[in-house]
Amino acid sequence: MIGGGKRCSEAARRMRQRPDTLELAVLDGQQVEKQEDDQTPSGAIGEPAATASTSSSTKKTCWFQFARSSRNRRKRLHCEEDEEEAENGRRACLAQPEGMNIGSSTQTIATPLMVGDSFYSLAPEAPNPAEDPKPEDQEQYKQRDPSEVSESKSARSLRRLSQMRRRRSSYYFSENERRIRANDKEFNLQYKYHNNYIKTSKYSVFTFLPFNLLEQFQRLANFYFLCLLVLQLIPAISSLTPVTTAIPLIGVLTLTAVKDAYDDIQRHLSDSQVNNRKSKTLRNGKLVDAKWSEVQVGDVIRLDNNQFVAADILLLTTSEPNGLCFIETAELDGETNLKAKQCLTETIELGDHHDALWNFNGEILCERPNNLLNKFDGTLIWRNQRFALDNEKILLRGCVLRNTQWCYGVVVFAGVDTKLMQNSGKTQFKSTGVDRLLNFIIIGIVLFLVSICALFAVGCAIWEGLIGQHFQAYLPWEHIIPKDYIPTGATVIGLLVFFSYAIVLNTVVPISLYVSVEVIRFIQSFLINWDEEMYYARTNTYAKARTTTLNEELGQIQYIFSDKTGTLTQNIMTFNKCSINGRTYGDVIDLRTGEPIEVTEALQCVDFSANPHHESDFRWYDRTLLDAVRSDEEHSHVFFRLLALCHTVMAETVEGKLEYQAQSPDEAALVAAARNFGFVFRSRTPNSITIEVMGRMEEYELLNILDFNNVRKRMSVILRRGDSVVLYCKGADNVIYDRLHGGQEDLKARTQDHLNKFAGEGLRTLVLAERRLTEQYYKEWRTRQQEAALSMDSREERLNEIYEEIESDMQLVGVTAIEDKLQDGVPKAIANLQSAGIKIWVLTGDKQETAINIGYSCQLLSDELADVFIVDGNSVEEVEKQLRQFKESIKIYNRFRPGGTEALYNSDSNMDPLSVTMTQTSVFMHESSTPPTPPPPPAISVVTFRWDDKNKDNKGGPDSAECNDLFGDEKRSLDGGAASIVIDENTGFALVVNGHSLVHCLSPELEIKFLDIASQCKAVICCRVTPLQKALVVELIKRAKNAVTLAIGDGANDVSMIKAAHIGVGISGQEGLQAVLSSDYAIAQFRYLERLLLVHGRWSYYRMCKFLRYFFYKNFAFTLCHCWYSLFCGFSAQTVFDPMFISVYNLFYTSLPVLSLGIFEQDVSDKNSVEYPRLYTPGLKSELFNIREFIYSVLHGAFTSLVLFLIPYGVYKDGVSHNGYILSDHMTLGAVVATILIVDNTAQISLYTSYWTVVNHITIWGSLVWYFVLDYFYNYVIGGPYVGSLTQAIKDLTFWMTMLITVMVLVAPVLAYKYYLLDVHPSLSDKIRQKSLKKIHSRASSDVRRTPSSRRGRRSVRSGYAFAHQEGFGRLITSGKIMHKMPQDFAFPLGLGTKKTQALHNNLTSADQTKASNSSGHHMGNNNNTNQRHNQNQNHSSMADISAEGRVNGADAGGSGGTEDLSPRAPCQDLDTINL
Q1: Cα separations (Å) of 1230 from 147, 506, 1141, 1289, 1422?
Q2: Hey, which residues are catalytic here?
Q3: For 847-861, how does the pLDDT look when each residue is reduced to its tens digit (9 = 90+)?
């Protein structure tokens, strides 16, 4: 069975080969070849002329073989499963790049198309002797008429060819692949790929009206009022004119439509700006300026330096040597360090030649559009060869070309298919929590109205059936009412009354509510836009509310998700401080006090103008370091010489000025610092570095670069100058300290103290060290290193051991401290937001060390934390294990935490109760196979006792959103009381999650555990995350925690997160305006977020809640009067008030006071709102407006309506005035009740108002006056039906006494309850107002600005290491690929250096050949292939030249090598860096 299966598989493989072989044979025998070449989508590209020379007998044999035996062979082969597996494997092979892992990188192989073994076979398969046709068949075939044979063969060939084309296209091209041909528009159009046009707008001119109305009527309130309007159009059931509903409804729809139209016009303008950008595109062999929207898949485009990439392109050629280019991906992942991309070696030759680029007809098979930024799989088919494509050859839309004059690329993905747009997310409809609550309340109110109307309908039917039928002479029934059968007539009247009451009572939720809400939000948005405190003068930027519907949601934020780069930081690295030989520099000391002076812009900086290469924007304030350098102090010279030599920076002169091109901002800052202090890096070649020291040129021979990576956490260079060889190294403190030689304990201790000081200030530190090497030792090490570099087994491990050997016994030089400059006020803003109960998560694409360093720098993390958990597992099992361990640690901490029973009972009773503060040690529980035992308690706990009332009952709840009651046990008597336990807010945990681990944390099986731990942490930092992962994290918190989220960022990589959150805030920073255009609010600096939330957000929420409570109160008080009157009017839907009064009650009489309340109201000032962030807490739990508060407003309104109606009804029923006039008429009662209602509303809103302005006075008292003016005008000028009713009533003393009694009965309970709360249960805002009135400040503002004076006393035991460098630039330098000059132009020609270098090469070559012996050819041959893959360059691979020499020498019995054996293209000393 095994043999049969094997034969079946081989036969299936041969059948899959046959169509291509046959096609080529047919094409070679016909003259239609040229025609078919133009029509063939693939496979026939560049068919070789060698195929045409194949003998005609072979072609006939192939054709005859196929014609004779294909059917029989198909019948014999029954192995469909094997064919399907082979086909899937083949497709996977075509879609994935071929490569070999060398070190930590995957290198591409240029693979020629295999003859007879590929779908792309370009030569006929050799005939199989076992399957030769029978001789008689061949003889019969030859005896046929040649012309007949030719004609039939031609027709059959064409038919067969087209069949094979169709079969092959469907057989090898699946829907999971994308096929593109460069410079072939017609070919690419057949696949209907998206163009590069971007559309984020929602409407067009024709679709705006219907789509917008459809959206608006999806709101329950609008649909409800539309139904009421329809009912009011029916005269039989409506007692009110439809104008009362139509005008407000049309006003609301119009206002909303105008706002939506404005927002969409802004989106159209943004789209137009992007789509109309210019891109240089090849068209008909000429470079033309085309709009971005006109760029299509398959176009070849040109990019110039500092230009944005228009679409996802395959890099073809660049201006740099070896096809390199450099890009900045801050828009995609937030990283500011440059990344190197390299095109295929074979396409470099295209250069800047437009004809060659236009004739490029390569075909690309690649993956379908996806959102994976770091992955690309594809294959390029060109010149009869296949070339594997990976992410290193792709430039993504949104990147910026840097340090490269020009480059060309072919568009692979365009428009919405680009990875940037795939990560941008979808625009979601956003509504506030208040809106959602209002929708729920409206449903409840509608159900309440339906039940009331049904009850009154039943009551009306009963009353008409029992009583009303006898009064038809006075109250005749409508003509549509059947009068023959009384029960039927009464039932019909009841049904009509049901709808009549629905119209009468609709004022419970009037349309004016939504008009008022929109007006309040609109004006609140302008208050945000006009706030001078959020104006950034440097860029002349105000805060901007880009939406008017989410203001109050700013007062309920529970989670903030922030980007790092450009959001918290300025993308600026500055050389801040340093430590040299145990002495620290950077602090400015006051000579009188000996204390450091705070560094401000007013402080005069050191003058570096004596240095002709100094940078004008470099700031340094400690003159002692410059004096040490100028006095030739040895240690300072070694320090700066190391900084000027140990790096991968490139130097170039632009317009006579020396400029640096750095792969990371860290290195740029260090080299720039050395430059300003007189150690100027001038130039470099692959094997030399030139610096200028105090005006003197120094040239060093670069022997080795031991490159940086995330495991080594250090980089070293080995240099020779004269007879001395030295190793310079810089890296993380813990890594360098382990490799220092003994005898430096005092220096190490002092330097460690400086490291702790720098780390405590949030600075990024690197430790510098050196080692002097002897020539003999270096030669021996070099020989061992060369052997490891050429090893085929465990190469990386052996090289690491060799590096460990030479990077040991080093001498400590000093420490650098770089400040990743934060935006102004970031630490203070974060501290206040956390004090408000908001959780802050940082989601960044940066490295883990950098993200953690910024966390400490902005005080999101602190050294007082019990522990910082790091999740970096690579599998689900590893991540789950880490989460389980962290959970155990949290359990231990919570068991023995301050305030727990153990800590309380075990505390020393003799402690000073005023202040006892200790430090907390973190406990980490590791897994073990033994049964768990009760862990020991932490040795020390943080406990603080105070005799004041500022302490709260903090039970250590896991989620800030589930914060303690603001109005809890706050009052502990200012003059004494029991001691309470206060837990330091800085204690707790923090969580750091890597991107590859976050994938598993977001999986369904682990997301609950992840959330459980994250919700108990003070801060969470997610690093190395993609834009889509940012959105997924936000969605997870929204879904699982049901929390209100805010996302803030400044780049295109933050767009998806901004769209996913409830509130999106964009920062108009250095990374463009993509985030701003997708945001709801735009600010210029992160620090303004504090004011946006704590002031405007809190005020908006507070005002909206007060407005809604009062609005529902006044409307229930007004509407329910009809219900009480129904008991006395036979449920006839007769209104108490004048219909005109009903129409204008909410529009004219009560709208302006409540609008003023919603716009200007504030309980405390903006200063107090920032100073006391705990004021923000009620919004986190929706305490100011919820179902309970709504029910309270309804009950209050119902009580008011009952008193409003019953007291005047009791007074005026059967009442007679002093002059004998009857007072008990309907119109007089309605006028009196309406007047008392307006007066009560005025009194109630006066009690509601806490902050009086001129506008409040005018609207409140003016509305009262306006009522009497309008009533007089309506009744006397227009001639209303209630003319004279109010005039006669106010002439009598009964009216005034009735009004006074009624208002007092209504106001007295409110005043009593208000003073009770103020005296017994005062809120925090009440306390602040009282203290403000008494000019007592009980709490000083805790300013945590990052200034040297405030950071001076801090020490940290953590490492401050962070280095935004990436592995690989060392190899580019030593291989010469990154150089602008050709190798023969270098000062130290590659392989032709000094005599000592040549002698060293000779020794290494001899030792290598002697050791390799006869097996040298084999091993070196393998090494040749390896290095060809590594360098991605068959024609210019320096390793290939060396390997070729090795093979020749090995084959010639190992002859000794000399200088002539060395390739001038690759020095042996660079083999380690090339092979890594």
Answers
A1: 113, 19, 10, 11, 104
A2: 563
A3: 788 788 888 888 888
